[in-house]
Amino acid sequence: MSATLERGIHAFKEVIDAPVASFFSSCVRCGLCAHACLFYTETEEPKYTPIYKLEPLRRVWREEYSFWGRLTKALGLSKPVTDDMLTEWETLVYDSCTMCGRCSMVCPVGNDIAYMVRKMREGMAASGHAPAGLIGATQRAVTIGSPMGVKLPALQAQIRHTEQDIGLPIPVDEVGAEYLLLLSSMEIMNFPEFIGAIAKIFNQAGVSWTISSEAFEATNSGIQIGVSDIAAELVERIVSAAEKLKVKSVISPECGHAYMAIRWEGPNLIGRPYSFKVVHILELLDDLREQGRLKTTGKETQRLTYHDPCQISRRGGVVKQPRNLLNMLAEDFVEMPESGTMNWCCGAGGGVSSNERADELRLKVFNRKKQQLDAIHPDAIISACSNCRIHLEDGLEEYGMDMPVLSLTETIAEHLAGSEQPGSKE
Amino acid sequence: MSETELLLWVRGPALQGATIIFLLGIAVRILEILMLGRKTDLAEARGSAVAGGLRTIISRSFAQRETLQRTAFTEVTGWIFHIGIFVTLLFFAPHILLFEEVLGLSWPALPTTVIDATTIVTIIALLAVLVHRIANRVTRFLSRFQDYLVWLVTILPMLTGYIAFHRVGLSPPMLIAIHILSVELLMVVFPFTKLMHAFTLFMSRYYNGAIAGYRGVNS
Questions:
Q1: Which residues in chain A touch residue B47, judged by CB atoms under 8 angstroms apart?
Q2: Is the distance from CB of A262 to CB of A238 less than 8 angstroms?
Q3: Collapsing DSSP states into helix, strand and coil, what is residue B16?
Q4: Is residue B71 part of a domain?
Q5: N or C: which end of chain B has fewer CB within 10 A?
């Protein structure tokens, strides 16, 4: 056995816990998870059946943690996991799975398959079977502080532009602020309007906030690639900045996996609870709305729908907040079939968008989103994840669909009372 | 060995042996799972893990509407044969007598005509499940030897029970002996195969629901 394979098998053994063992023990190979996965429904290739993507992990569980498996292994009757097998599974577990967790919602015996894919990636990365694109993103996250290589001066430039544009200060490194805002590199580079939107909303609502110059990146490539040590290091950076600035809460921005990383995985990665709260921006905005601190004017007259980012809604629990907010904004809001916790993934989450090898596949499976949109014909899509947004734009272009993709936070900012925008109805 | 001797052996030592393997095997499998343990979640909870876990144990028996439309055949045949097996196992008068003998508990039986019809429907559903397993590209791709073995040991008690009840071919003691043997085969195979899902699905559904419930999601 090669040293890397040994490391991989060791990592597999490490991540197997009682839930994983119960999941593998319960699978009856009914195949229902295939029909919940856009990578299967849009390709009809059986290898994309979610539970099949876990076969190496299942083998290790069986050989190491089940009586029957240990017996067959001792008798030399079992098929061990090999390097070739992991090479074959690399594309299944990284290119054709976004860890969206839709399969976990339909499995009749209750298998949380996405929970296991997340764990399996630990062994894949340890054995040297992670995709080059994700390795690059992770290296940049560790060395530069951002998977896209965004450095502080780039953020500072965007902050200066935003301040000039909106005439409001963007607080940086303000000790004692109530909220620390994190950003994803995509927001900094592709959607800097998000920063201005936050500044306007918080200014109106009287929220005390700051950005940290030491930890502004919200995303966590360590989780996507499956290296918990790196994931923990990236979380620690945020924790230390939050503690240094003595904030009460950290705001996770419009990014699905960032929310999963900082809200749900973070404390478990670093092995201790936080001394602060973590809220998703939509949770905070909905709280402000409820408290009467977020006041909007006018409504969007176009037909709007909301694309639930998987890690924010299905895996994260922020489902009703965007709908409350849209209620306030949209005259003609329409749900896609199977929205909310059963929404179909855009096809590019979970590190798929950082993995160029998967580009063709992610655009192919976008057809599922197309079908969902074709059922309701919206004029525009609103979402709350910049990664979803970029891929939705990509997919819409690929399929020749003309439809703007908007950020919920930015749309709210455009409708803030006292900041009338052209084109919106009073 | 005469027919009577065979029946006595089947009902005596063979049944005892099968029961021991069945119960011990299940206990080992469940302990193996529980002993792996699970780390405490350090993230601040939004909802209740326990409530979510218990809810999913029940709710996962029913597919959502769109999922059902997509996978109706699997869902419907699955429901039919599971209910059929439980109804014939638990509500056929001779079975209840056996339970009373072993457990000291008794309950009303269903009329034999109902049991008879249920058995036929269950056998048809199980045959349909096999055809689907072979004909459907996903299940054919996923299936291993074990899946066909489990199918066989599941349908055998239904078939042998039906034949024994209608006394076709062999003498009644022989038919009963074969029926009980087929059940013993099922019991012996049980702990080593996916038949374990009958017990472990309560754990996996609980874990699934608990993971989601902790985050405030109904899974």
A1: 317
A2: yes
A3: helix
A4: yes
A5: N
Chain B residues 184-213 with a CB less than 8 Å from chain A? 192, 194, 196-197, 200-201, 203-209, 211-212
pLDDT 10s per residue in chain A (426 long)? 789 999 999 999 999 999 999 999 999 999 999 999 999 999 999 999 999 999 999 999 999 999 889 999 999 988 899 999 999 999 999 999 999 999 999 999 999 999 999 999 999 999 999 999 999 999 999 999 999 999 999 999 999 999 999 999 999 999 999 999 999 999 999 999 999 999 999 999 999 999 999 999 999 999 999 999 999 999 999 999 999 999 999 999 999 999 999 999 999 999 999 999 999 999 999 999 999 999 999 999 999 999 999 999 999 999 999 999 999 999 999 999 999 999 999 999 999 999 999 999 999 999 999 999 999 999 999 999 999 999 999 999 999 999 999 999 999 999 998 754 444 443
Nearest residue of chain A to residue B57 (CA atoms): A110
Kindly determine whether residue B138 and residue A46, on different chains, have CB atoms separated by under 8 Å: yes
| Dist CA B195 CA A367 (whole Å) | 37
ipTM of the complex: 0.96
Q: Given 3-state DSSP classes, what are the helix, strand and coil percentages for chain B, each rounded to the nearest 5?
A: 80, 0, 20
DSSP strands (E only) in A163-322: 179-181, 209-211, 249-252, 277-280, 300-307
Q: H/E/C letters for each residue in A139-151?
A: HHHHHCCCCCCCC
Q: Is B128 inside a domain boundary?
A: yes
For residue B67, give the nearest of A17, A104, A106 by CB distance. A106
CA distances from A327 to A301, A323, A334, B130 (A): 12, 6, 10, 49
Question: Is B17 within the bounds of a domain?
Answer: no
CB-based contact A317 B204, cutoff 8 Å: no
Query: Would you give the DSSP letter of residue B40?
Result: P
d(CA B36, CA A144) in angstroms, rounded, equals 38
Q: Long-range contacts made by residues B159-167, C-beta under 8 angstroms, separation at least 24? A: B159/B123, B161/B88, B161/B92, B161/B119, B162/B116, B162/B119, B162/B120, B162/B123, B165/B112, B165/B116, B165/B119
Q: Please give the residue of chain A at the shortest CA–CA distance from B71.
A: A32
Q: Is residue B160 part of a domain?
A: yes
Q: How many CB atoms lie within 10 A of CB A103?
A: 24
Q: Does B217 touch chain A (CB under 8 A)?
A: yes
DSSP annotation of B110: P
Q: Chain A residues with CB inside 8 Å of B190's CB?
A: none
Distance CA A306, CA A324 (A): 12
A341, B217: Cβ pair inside 8 Å? yes
Phi, psi of A333 (to 5 degrees): -100, 130
A112/B207 Cβ within 8 A: yes
Residue contact A341–B56, C-beta within 8 A: no
CA distance A264 to A278: 9
Beta-bridge partner residues of A279: A251
Cα R_g (chain A), whole angstroms: 22
CB atoms within 10 A of CB B162: 18
CB spacing of A25 vs B74 below 8 angstroms: no
Distance CA A306, CA A313 (A): 11
Range of the domain at B152: 64-189
Residues from chain A contacting residue B61 (CB–CB below 8 Å): 108
Nearest CA in chain A to B194: A28
